[in-house]
Amino acid sequence: MKSLVLCLLLPFCSVAQGQLSINDTIQKTENSLAPNTIYGDAVPDLNLEQRMKEIGIKGLSIAVIKNYQIHWAKGYGWADEASKRKVTPDTRFQAASISKSLNSMGILKLVEEKKIDPRADINTLLKSWQFPYDSNSGKTKINIYQLLSHTAGLSVHGFPGYERGTELPTLPQILDGRSPANTKAVRSLFEPGTKVQYSGGGTTLSQLIVEDITGQPYEKYMKEAVLQPLGMAHSSFEQPISDTLNLATGYYANGKPVTGKYHVYPEQAAAGLWTTPTDLAKYIIECQLAIKGDSKKYYPNR
Questions:
Q1: Across-strand partners of 94?
Q2: How far apart are CA 78 and CA 223, in angstroms?
Q3: Segment 28-54, tens digit of pLDDT
Q4: What is the rounded CA–CA span in Å between residue 287 and residue 285?
Q5: pLDDT per residue as tens digits for the range 74-95
Q6: CA 32, CA 48: separation in Å to the nearest integer?
Q7: C-beta neighbour count of 132 within 10 angstroms
Q8: To 10 degrees, the CA torsion angle through 194, 200, 201, 205?
Q9: Which pLDDT band holds residue 20 (cuts at 50, 70, 90)?
Q10: 3-state secondary structure labels for all residues of the chain
Q11: Which end of the chain has a smaller Cβ tally under 10 Å, C or N?
């Protein structure tokens, strides 16, 4: 799926901006793309919209952060080509695995509130399902930190999603690889904590932990604990999403739209976020400020 493109903080140009106006800065960004391969000293300036046509990108959106603020945001191309609906800064895209980063924030909030012991065996946190340890995991139990860092030794790299209107599996069905799930069971491949191996399956396991610990649907908890406090008003983990306003249609590399315009991901923590670059910029800004100890959202009493 090629056209659900979300562009954020891309270094389109390295020209010193000085006192340039925002419009001048946008124009430099749009007209100063570098090619995939650079020969010699001369670097040709490529136009953004021209480049989109060359590689078959129907639509994209950009948000730029400068000095811990959103400097500018703009959309390009089509959110839906058939209806001639253009991308705007409010167009919502499927964020794919960017979802995992915000999922980690939601879980670490539960750790901060001492509702989760991040070093505990995940089966002490799970209530509705238990992970079936086997000889591949050795004698080492899996913990939350390992799920979030892809060091749990688990299978299932990613998820293809489901066509709109088809039957969706429950989380236990996904984790066990049972119909109507379209992926294999999430199981141990090697002893946890020994190496890194990307696993969307492990992230989905963390989603079930969130629901079991909070007693809430995942999308409700993430909205209240993460999205709303960060001011991400155009974002949602709801799958399938009920508010279909300003959603971007997905397109394959051959230019054809995805059947039903987009897929549905019950694997919400791994791939279920609908968002905009502007909302993601708000998330990044608060992470940057939190590292400095200056975030009023992370540290409201300071």
A1: 274
A2: 28
A3: 999 988 877 777 776 677 899 999 998
A4: 5
A5: 999 999 999 999 999 999 999 9
A6: 8
A7: 13
A8: 90
A9: confident
A10: CCCCCCEECCCCCCCCCCCCCHHHHHHHHHCCECCCCCCCCCCCCECHHHHHHHHCCCEEEEEEEECCEEEEEEEEEEEECCCCEECCCCCEEECCCHHHHHHHHHHHHHHHCCCCCCCCCHHHCCCCCCCCCCHHHCCCCCCHHHHHCCCCCECCCCCCCEECCCCCCCHHHHHHCCCCCCCCCCCECCCCCCCCCCCHHHHHHHHHHHHHHHCCCHHHHHHHHHHCCCCCCCCECCCCCCCCCCECCCECCCCCECCCCCEECCCHHHHCCEECHHHHHHHHHHHHHHHHCCCCCCCCCC
A11: C
- The tokens describing 267, both together, are 């694997």
Quick one: CATH architecture of 92-275? 3-Layer(aba) Sandwich (3.40)
- Would you state the structure tokens that stand for residue 229, as one six-digit string? 């406090």
Look at residue 3 and tell me whether its pLDDT is greater than 50: no
HSE-CB of 8 using CA atoms within 13 angstroms: 16
User: Does the pLDDT value for residue 136 go beyond 70?
Assistant: yes
Tokens representing residue 287 in the block: 């992470």
| C-alpha torsion angle, residues 137, 138, 141, 146 (rounded to 10) | -50
Q: How confident is the model at residue 298 (pLDDT cuts 50, 70, 90)?
A: low
Q: Which two tokens stand for residue 264?
A: 């549905």
Task: Report CA torsion sign: 274, 153, 208, 299.
Answer: negative
Each residue of 163-192: pLDDT tens digit? 999 999 999 999 999 999 999 999 999 999
Q: In this predicted structure, what is the pLDDT of residue 43? A: 67
Distance between CA atoms of residues 54 and 58, nearest Å: 10
Residue in this structure with the two tokens 């979030």, named with its chain if needed: 148
Q: Whole-angstrom distance between the N-terminal and C-terminal Cα of the chain?
A: 44
Q: Read off the pLDDT of each residue in 278-285 and give the average, rounded to a whole number.
A: 97
Residues of the chain with CATH 3.40.710.10: 92-275
